[in-house]
UniProtKB/TrEMBL annotation:
It comes from Ekhidna lutea. It holds the Pfam family DNA_pol_B_exo2. InterPro entries: 3'-5'_exonuclease_PolB-like (IPR019288), RNaseH-like_sf (IPR012337), RNaseH_sf (IPR036397). This is Predicted 3'-5' exonuclease PolB-like domain-containing protein. Residues 64-227 form the Predicted 3'-5' exonuclease PolB-like domain. Gene3D superfamilies: Ribonuclease H-like superfamily/Ribonuclease H. GO terms for molecular function: nucleic acid binding. CDD domains: DNA_polB_like1_exo. It comes from the Bacteria.
């Protein structure tokens, strides 16, 4: 297992709206959000102010990253194991810089494989966009610019599950349920992250713990999708 998963990293990000509410936006950015809100599916006809609090986090132009989770497969006492590390900060530029420095110092950028659930549609492009906004050079392993498709080492567990069927989104929670993997969605789920961050005193800590569970769930799902045994909970270690 150790050789198979050398230079292999599970990634998950947690994002929130860039501001607590729409009134904190500049007049220009507020206008852009109001225009964006007009294109968002909105069957309940919620006003732009409410949509901002509920949906801005998923758009890199209006959101920010507050937690980045990472998972590393390895062997411990001859058995498959998983090491989980999270970076969390209220200061996005500092967070992204720490992430960039970590992966560039710990992994061979030419061979590093990045794996996430819905990563190709969300995590990887979101990271790249927010790095550019924060004037950070995108790490080679993350950047797709100028690369041929087979040179991009990005793995998406949702894409693996689709087997070429692009009709629908399949959540991590659904897949962990059908594969008998413990869910990360317990006291918190993705729809609650922004509210938790801005309204609860220990919100960032709660979101960091939620991200750790997402990393574990994604790591276990990847193994099941490759007909490999799950990692025993006793072999999962959360590190600083």
């Amino acid at each position: 297992m150790q050789n198979h998963f050398q230079d292999f990293l599970i990634v998950d990000i947690e994002t929130v709206s860039g501001n607590e509410n729409i009134e904190q936006l500049s007049p220009t950015l507020k206008k852009h959000w109001e225009r964006k809100a007009g294109f968002i599916r909105n069957p309940e006809e919620k006003p732009p102010e409410e949509l901002y609090e509920e949906r801005a986090a998923i758009y890199a132009e209006f959101g920010k990253i507050i937690v980045i989770g990472m998972g590393f497969y390895h062997e411990h006492k001859g058995k498959p194991a998983l090491r989980v590390k999270t970076l969390a900060s209220d200061h996005e530029k500092e967070l992204l810089t720490d992430f960039k420095n970590f992966i560039e110092s710990k992994f061979d950028q030419d061979n590093l494989k990045l794996c996430a659930h819905n990563g190709k549609e969300f995590d990887f492009p979101y990271l790249c966009r927010r790095m550019l906004i924060n004037d950070i050079k995108i790490p080679w392993s993350l950047n797709m610019t100028g690369k041929k498709p087979w040179e991009v080492n990005h793995i998406d567990t949702m894409e693996l599950w689709k087997f070429g069927d692009w009709k629908s989104f399949t959540s991590l929670d659904l897949l962990t349920n059908i594969f008998g993997i413990p869910s990360s969605k317990t006291e918190l789920d993705g729809s609650m992250v922004t509210k938790t961050y801005y309204e609860e005193k220990d919100g960032l800590k709660k979101i960091e713990e939620y991200c750790q569970k997402d990393i574990i769930a994604t790591a276990q799902l990847y193994l099941r999708l490759n007909n490999l045994p799950l990692i025993d909970p006793g072999q999962i270690n959360i590190v600083k």
